[in-house]
Amino acid sequence: MLNNPRPSNITRRTFLGVGGAAAVASPMRAFAAASQASNSSAVKVEKGVVYGKGGSMDLHCDIYRPPPGTEKHMALIHLYGGGFRGGSIADLPDKVTPVTALGYVSIAAQYRLTGVAKFPAMLHDVKTAIRWARANATALGIDPKRVAVVGYSAGGFLALAAAGTMNRPEFEGEGGNPKVGSELAACVAFYPRTEISLEANGAAHILLPPGSDAAAHRAASPTTYVSPAFPPTILYHGLADMNIPPESSYHFLQLLREAKVPSELHTFDGVPHEFDTHPEFAQATAELTDFFLDRHVLHPRTYPPFGPGGGRGRGSTAIG
């Protein structure tokens, strides 16, 4: 009952050139799409579960369970976008379902918006969701050490903030399960805002209380908290994004690399903000996320060194 308040085998055949693959690419893609559609239809959703408190209000989540037989016993907590003043868990099904169909338990979690409370209230809510998932691991069918966050736009900001402030008392809040930690196994951020600053007229960003100074903005920004303790992180950004420029993710990736955090950034040509509302991109990013989590969380592994020109280094183990 929920409490409220093998690595893949890689062979040379995988790397066949276009000439060898072209004849079968279309049928294979069609087969994969049909298979994925079947899996997606088998995803089950439990809506409106109370996972904690945000101040005096109940916080709700929708739980997406993967098709029987696909379970990877890992939870992904999804955080919607909306500029911190809008958005809800009702916006997430088309983004959440493809990755759930690959074997993950997905939890679309509500958090307070700026019309209700200012930062760090919404980060407190995210931490409450993380602790709730870990406290209810048995009922959810997950390993409590395998909980990750997935955020979109403003939700991406909160996902990165949660990843950088694991178990920091000032960001934990009092929403429930206080004796459970807010550790994360990984972080996934789609077109995230990565820092906030004073407005051009000197006013505070909408996320913060009026009168907040530059130091308060730095203290709220995920960029402030990048360190070697940051969990493995994958970022996605459209190169035609006019809402949050892709340079936001470039900069964050550089900080992660400097801290030697396992990290990736995938950019997509010609697509704007929220490009993953298109099913093709939702599916593609789900598969990339699955591969990243498999390599860094589910079946951690390293690879042999490569020699000059991409060949295998001396003494490395041949694959295939």
Describe the protein's topology.
Elements (H helix, E strand, L loop, with lengths): L17 H24 L2 E11 L2 E9 L9 E5 L13 H8 L4 E5 L11 H15 L1 H4 L6 E6 L1 H11 L21 E5 L23 H7 L12 E6 L8 H12 L4 E6 L10 H20 L22
Parallel strand pairs: 3-4, 3-5, 5-6, 6-7, 7-8
Antiparallel strand pairs: 1-2, 2-4
Helix pairs in contact: 2-8, 3-5
Provide a descriptive summary of the structure in words:
With 320 residues, this protein is an alpha/beta fold. It has a single domain, classed as Rossmann fold, CATH 3.40.50. It has eight helices and eight strands. An eight-stranded mixed beta sheet has the order 1-2-4-3-5-6-7-8, sandwiched between helices. A hairpin with a 2-residue loop joins strand 1 and strand 2. The longest helix is centred in the first third of the chain and has 24 residues. The radius of gyration is 20 Å and the shape is globular. It starts with 17 loop residues before the first helix and ends in a 22-residue tail after the last helix. The C terminus is likely disordered.
Radius of gyration: 20 Å
Please provide the ordered H/E string of secondary-structure elements: HEEEHEHHEHEHEHEH
Structural class, from secondary structure content? Answer: alpha/beta
Distance between the termini: 46 Å
Question: What value does the average pLDDT take?
Answer: 88
Strand content is 15-25%
Q: Unreliable segments (pLDDT under 50, ≥5 consecutive)?
A: 5-25, 313-320
Q: Roughly what percent helix?
A: 25-40%
CATH C-level class:
Alpha Beta
Q: What's the CATH superfamily, by name?
A: Alpha/Beta hydrolase fold, catalytic domain
**CATH architect. name:** 3-Layer(aba) Sandwich
Could you tell me the number of beta strands?
A: 8
Number of helices: 8
Morphology: globular
Count of separate structural domains = 1
Identify the strand order in the major beta sheet. 1-2-4-3-5-6-7-8
Describe the sheet with the most strands. 8 strands, mixed
